[in-house]
Automatic annotation (TrEMBL):
<keyword id="KW-0808">Transferase</keyword>
<comment type="similarity">
    <text>Belongs to the methyltransferase superfamily.</text>
</comment>
<keyword id="KW-0489">Methyltransferase</keyword>
<protein>
    <submittedName>
        <fullName>Methyltransferase DDB_G0268948</fullName>
    </submittedName>
</protein>
<dbReference type="Pfam" id="PF08241">
    <property type="entry name" value="Methyltransf_11"/>
</dbReference>
<dbReference type="GO" id="GO:0008757">
    <property type="term" value="F:S-adenosylmethionine-dependent methyltransferase activity"/>
</dbReference>
<feature type="domain" description="Methyltransferase type 11">
    <location>
        <begin position="46"/>
        <end position="137"/>
    </location>
</feature>
<dbReference type="InterPro" id="IPR051052">
    <property type="entry name" value="Diverse_substrate_MTase"/>
</dbReference>
<dbReference type="GO" id="GO:0032259">
    <property type="term" value="P:methylation"/>
</dbReference>
<dbReference type="InterPro" id="IPR029063">
    <property type="entry name" value="SAM-dependent_MTases_sf"/>
</dbReference>
<dbReference type="InterPro" id="IPR013216">
    <property type="entry name" value="Methyltransf_11"/>
</dbReference>
Length: 271
């Protein structure tokens, strides 16, 4: 049974607007692993748990066909609205039953999503759809370890963010999947013995304070907190505390945001 948490129209709209795109060096890392045994040109990639297509779009220049799959209809609608690539098709459905032929796929990816899947069933599907020497890449960044400082004076805001996170922990707003991601998938079982992990890459960007607060609104832990306490203004309080610490107005506040990325890469045995 698929885990449901990214379903509400309001949540998916925030997701589409505020979640960061992945940097191109992450997709390059995945492609370099794939191409060790399966050289370009590549026919088909599948991005599972694609959300509004934050990672899916990066695959488009490297494959003839890209399929983005997500169990949430609303995420898929957002992905279709944002799609500018003719070779990407988005479709709703669970990771545990992929709508693809046997041995038809060069690369299966899942960005910030595999911790929500029934992994035994997902891996059975991965093995069924991959070609020999095809690869699977699971990647993520622990959202709760986001590092943030202010540009240009470098004042660290990470402690304020940790206090906000602690409130969500104390109120049991984070789920099992969030904890798996928080740990960088370190105990996740992987289906193939030809396997590497890479913890060297980062996702970094500059955001206005208001866009950063918008990103926090897309956290599933925050959504759960607001379901419990709909009248709460915890993010407004956090925003005010950040401005006070920076001694800035909201239009002046520009933040540097940094996530550490982890990538698990595995290859199906060849012929
Ligand atoms: C945190 S979002 C990641 C979205 C996007 N890949 C990104 O990098 O930002 C996780 C996504 O996984 C989807 N998801 C969760 N369980 C799923 C399942 N069993 N099958 C397919 N998608 C699933 C959710 O609907 C959600 O869109």
């Amino acid at each position: 049974m698929a885990y449901r948490r990214f379903e509400g129209v309001d949540h998916t709209a925030k997701y589409a607007r505020y979640r960061p795109m992945w940097p191109s060096h992450v997709v390059e890392r995945v492609l370099s692993y794939l191409e060790e045994k399966l050289p370009a040109p590549h026919d088909r990639a599948v991005d599972v748990g694609c959300g509004s297509g934050q990672f899916t779009q990066l695959l488009a220049p490297h494959f003839n066909h890209v399929t983005g799959i997500d169990v949430s209809d609303n995420q898929i609608q957002e992905a279709r609205k944002m799609n500018q690539c003719k070779n990407i098709q988005y479709s709703s459905g669970p990771a545990e039953t992929l709508p693809l032929n046997d041995h038809s796929v060069d690369l299966v990816t899942s960005a910030s999503a595999a911790h929500w899947f029934d992994l035994d069933k997902f891996y059975t599907e991965v093995d069924r759809v991959l070609k020999p020497n095809g690869c699977v890449a699971l990647l993520g960044y622990p959202v709760r370890r986001t590092a943030v400082d202010a540009n240009p004076n470098g004042i660290l805001l990470t402690q304020l963010l940790s206090d906000f996170d602690k409130l969500l922990v104390d109120e049991n707003c984070w789920e099992k999947g969030n904890f798996i991601s928080h740990d960088g998938y370190k105990d996740l079982l992987f289906p193939y013995s030809d396997f590497v992990r890479d913890d060297c890459l980062t996702l970094e960007y500059e955001a206005t304070l208001d866009n950063f607060i918008g990103y926090l609104r897309s956290w599933s832990g925050y959504i759960k907190y607001m379901e419990k306490y709909p009248e709460s203004g915890i993010l407004e309080t956090l925003r005010d505390s950040m401005l006070k610490t920076l001694n800035m107005t909201s239009s002046e506040a520009k933040l540097n945001v940094k996530h550490n990325v982890f990538i698990l890469l595995g290859r199906k045995p060849g012929p």
